[in-house]
Automatic annotation (TrEMBL), chains A, B:
Organism encoding this protein: Kaistia hirudinis
Matches recorded under InterPro entries: Homeodomain-like_sf, HTH_RpiR, RpiR-like, RpiR-like_SIS, SIS_dom, SIS_dom_sf, WH-like_DNA-bd_sf
Protein name, entry field: DNA-binding MurR/RpiR family transcriptional regulator
Entry superkingdom: Bacteria
Keyword terms: DNA-binding, Transcription, Transcription regulation
Taxonomic placement: Bacteria, Pseudomonadati, Pseudomonadota, Alphaproteobacteria, Hyphomicrobiales
Alphabetized GO MF terms: carbohydrate derivative binding; DNA binding; DNA-binding transcription factor activity
Any Gene Ontology biological process: carbohydrate derivative metabolic process
Record domain HTH rpiR-type: where: 14-90
A Pfam family recorded for this sequence: SIS
Length: 280, 280
DNA sequence: GAATGTCTGGAACATTTATTTCGCATCTCG
DNA sequence: CGAGATGCGAAATAAATGTTCCAGACATTC
């Protein structure tokens, strides 16, 4: 048994990174060489095979194993897992660093972790929204919505807060809307008035509420332009024609954030109002 | 040689993604299944081995190879490489953020600035929530709410999305709630049932809706414990007894974010449900 | 209703993989 | 200067990988 370090191997990237940095100067030549390369291009460590990494770092594969073992891992693969986790789940490194700082805060009470978790989810959602949404899509949607007489807002369950907020905001801005999805069962009748001169916004996430689906289909069949906000390109709501947005909300403890959807909703709302103000 | 597609295989992720999305409906059942999984969790495709991915997608490993070949790749590994590049090419977060900020501040269309503005507002709101909220306050509020028979949710206008979301989430968690503030004028009658064994959550921001104020006063007079979420210590809602939270939402173009309020709302909701589950 | 083409599942295959082992070189300290 | 220990590299090894192949199921078409 050549057990080197009594300390347990770090399981998260940033702890490991600190450990490598501090111990680097005390390491044998080749191991230090690996340390340097690992810090310089951690992505290669995450993806490459031991052989390819060894070649790029100008080291023997066995040295990589030794390197991993020097830090308490059983083999190289185990260390590699840590490098991979960093890229998993798309926690952008910034957020991860923050959440780790927070985690170091003595863990905190259960409540604190809850709040931190939901805050994280909100921030990650907004971050990914910012990365992925194409401004031209928004402009296309706004073009539809701006020339509509009445905008029908379709959303059940988790999406209802979003549509209700849009209803409020549109109202404040002087845009006529009809909010669908309340408790009463009068929605199909309400939607019957929608026509080609109107527009509709449908919001739904997995699991897609069947009512939302039916309603979206109904207005679409009536020739009403439809703008969709959903969470997958394979969502049954995604229209053949028309604009749709993919919004991926991060979740915590199974409860997805709404921040990204709301940010997008507000953007659409205000943009539509602005276009109207200019044209009208 | 069973060369299927004359088209060359996409070498970057987003092109491939679009291709998968468009061709998905024309794909055989199992291949469509793979497509669905690949879009739902692309990170797993990037990291996992063919065997592990196949298991998670409930498909045979050979199907993965066929899937890759259906899109013009020679084998699965080649397709996997595209999924990996997506994560590899990600610029270091600091630079990315900086360049994004720069793009948003300087150039960018009006629409882009709108979206960025609302995203910023959301992030700032959540950030300040994280700093200012005291976990002990949350725990105190949770203690009130957890022992309530029925929770009354009071909120008009901008606060209504928050209460309606809480209503949805509480419902999913098996907690009885009554949502006040809908369009009908029956709210005072509904609230008449609130008693000392219940609890109420009132949410209101400047300008405080008079209805919310009246309703909060009503339940308070009836001896119902009240938890308040508002935006100022001088808010007329702040109760003499009971718990209240100050949530300052950042705004953009006069429209305040809801992200912080929602994050707090979700924290309260889940925390209450957890306490109830423990106590039976 | 038979025949044809496609899709699917499972196992066999060759290859690549991470790891271990062993011998040599290098450095250290008496 | 020499004995011991340590670092290092190349090959050997055993596990695991991606891929291919074939037979059966399935739907479709004539």
């Amino acid at each position: 048994m050549t057990d080197e370090t009594g300390t347990a191997a770090p399981r998260d990237f940033w702890t490991l990174r600190n450990l490598i940095v501090t111990r680097k100067d005390a390491l044998p030549k080749r191991l230090a060489q690996v340390a340097l390369y690992a810090m310089a291009s951690p992505d290669d460590i995450a993806f490459g095979t031991a052989a390819s990494i060894a070649e790029k770092a100008a080291v023997q594969p066995s040295t990589l194993v030794r390197f991993a073992q020097a830090f308490g891992y059983q083999g190289f693969s185990e260390l590699q897992e840590v490098f991979r986790d960093r890229l998993r789940d798309r926690p952008s490194t910034y957020d991860e660093r923050l959440s780790q700082l927070r985690a170091h805060k003595d863990g905190g009470s259960k409540t604190e972790r809850l709040l931190a978790g939901f805050c994280d989810a909100a921030e990650r959602s907004v971050g990914s929204l910012r990365e992925r949404i194409d401004a031209r899509q928004i402009e296309a949607a706004v073009a539809f919505l701006a020339r509509a007489e009445t905008i029908y807002l379709i959303g059940q369950r988790r999406s209802f807060p979003v549509t209700s907020y849009m209803s409020y905001a549109f109202g404040k801005l002087g845009v006529k809307t009809v909010l669908v999805g309340s408790a009463q069962g009068t929605d199909p009748e309400t939607l019957a008035f929608a026509g080609p001169r109107d527009a509709a916004i449908a919001i739904s996430f997995t699991p897609y509420a069947s009512a939302t689906l039916a309603q979206a289909r109904q207005v679409s069949d009536q020739g009403t332009p439809l703008v969709v906000i959903t969470d997958s390109p394979f969502s049954p709501l995604v229209p053949k024609l028309g604009v749709w947005f993919e919004v991926v909300e991060a979740d915590y403890e199974g409860f997805r954030s709404l921040s990204a959807s709301l940010a997008l909703a507000m953007t659409l709302t205000v943009a539509v109002a602005e276009v109207r103000r200019q044209d009208g």
